[in-house]
Here is the input.
Amino acid sequence: MANGKRSNYIKQKHPKPIQQQLNFMSDVIDKFVDYGDVFIDGLDEKGYELGNDYPIYTMIYQFLDVLDSISILTRKGSTVSVKILSRTLLELSMNLRYILVMPKEKGKASYNVCYLERLKAKSKISDENTKAGQNFEANLRKLNQNSKRYGLIISPIISERNNSDNDDLYETYPHLKIAKDEYDKVRKKLNKNNPYNNLEPNWYSLFNGPNSFRKLLEKFDLAAYYEILYGPQSGELHGSEANAMMQSSDNGIGITMLRNPEHLQNAIFGVLDITHRLYDFIAESYITENRKKEYYNWYNETIKDKHKKIKHEPLYFINHAYRK
Here is the structure.
């Protein structure tokens, strides 16, 4: 931004016909987000409880939160951000699938132990007696060298929870102790040839579970997602494919405008496909028969034609607009 003017890299407004289609896609996503409450009620009726089965509920809420964020970005035409979040959405959907198919106590214990151990590892940076804590203090001093210009960072961003009582939890709850023993076994194997001994297992890898995200996808016959969505988004997620913003047209070569929705429709179809498949998966086995019928009626009457339109019909055409 120069002289108080907004950069002309950013399209503040799309032409009305395009904005209408962006709103249309966002509205469809919103309907899926809103229907999440019905599934939560359905789980309650099926015997799940927030107090006992909270990893399942927190996964659902996080899935809906990411889906809601995608809806907001869709209205803005932010293709790259939607693509990045679609990968997160896929990971959440697969974690949720797996915890639902696992024996209930074993699944919850595996997820909770891995969560507690990650918090424990993160909390070491606040302990000056650990190597991690000492390294962090040294790095924090370097970061604060320019505190007059940027402000002083006083404390690390760490969990508020004191993790010193994890061992007591494991001893108090036998199912957590069993999962912790399994965690230690898998972690030891994972770090066998790692001199830093800092690799943490995924919760779904415990008890002979999939040892990678690709394997997790394969378990549900969704391995194609790895090549279609998960792998391709790695570059954008880690900032190594910025050159993809270069475009060419009859006018030459340049950098595309921000909020360029040219490939957004394809990304949204991927988002809807992930969501639709997850909702079908939950409906088939994890809610009552009446809720299941209600869901399929809702989809067929409210979503199906709109979903098909996004999949098969080009909703808009983008004239290349870029800055040379």
